[in-house]
Amino acid sequence: MHKKNTPDATFTIEHSEVRVNNVRLHIAASGPPDGTPVFLLHGFPDTWFGWEYQIKFLAQNGFRVIAPDQRGYNLSEKPTGIKHYELDQLTSDIVSLADHFNYDTINLAGHDWGAAVCWNTAIRYPERVKRLAILNVPHPTVMANYLKRHPRQMLKSWYIFVFQIPRLAEKLARLGNWRLLISAFPKYLPRSTTDRYREAWSQPGAITGMINWYRAAFRSARTSASSPNKVTCPTLIVWGKNDRYLSYAMAPLSLEYCPDGELVTFEKTSHWVLLDKPDEVSKLLLNHFQ
After folding, report:
1. What Å distances lie between residue 190 and 167, 186, 271, CA to CA?
2. Active-site annotation holder among 84, 112, 139, 257
3. Is 271 one of the catalytic residues?
4. Per-residue pLDDT tens for 248-276?
5. Fewer CB near the terminus (10 Å): N or C of the chain?
6. Where would I find the beta strands (DSSP E) of 118-232?
7. Reported pTM
8. Cα–Cα distance between 65 and 39 in angstroms, integer?
9. Could you give phi then psi for residue 67, rounded to 5 degrees?
């Protein structure tokens, strides 16, 4: 039976390092050790603490929450070379992390690039994902097809092309005390939070590691239209419709790949739905994962 109340400091957030899939990952974890596992995966240019509200809420409600800094980010290892950031490697990190904690199945939620890893994990390892939650990222087949047919989405994704330029992308990111990356976040974030992000991006090798996710995806030049691409586990798609990076039209199209799927939308909410609507998103995850 899960207790339902607002998140507080009942469960502290524990920090550790684990070595999985030949990479060292920093892990933030909370909740009872015997609780049902939920993995929360951040995207770009985020870190584990983008999920901090949801970590505390789900832990308070009886789940064991695992939120890694994904490879290349913050306090996790940053392998040198673009090949280390291919989607299959990123997916293997999560499956290996579940193995490390002796979880046969996990509940899995992701935002932005973290959601892309979630989609791929559920498609490639359906037996390992109990329930899936996706925040503001389309199914990979939908994304691949939509980019080909809709030039407006290509314009929204302009930064992906800039990121392909070695050294220039890193230099642009660092300009003005990380002004470009800060501008990606909601303006209401307090200085204390943006300073945490600046510290994370300033870790040795971090900005190149982070951008290498985009470079690896660009170079692979593979669409994810290979079969099978249906997601068989119960899937919740949460979408802030005021997303300046990804068209909302891809949300209902993604639902078509989820036979047991549900789409929940927020009208005036940005790409950062987990920050814009922390309480609502936390409750949606709780209800879905229960």
Report:
1. 30, 10, 18
2. 112
3. yes
4. 999 999 999 999 999 999 999 999 999 99
5. N
6. 129-135
7. 0.92
8. 6
9. -125, 100
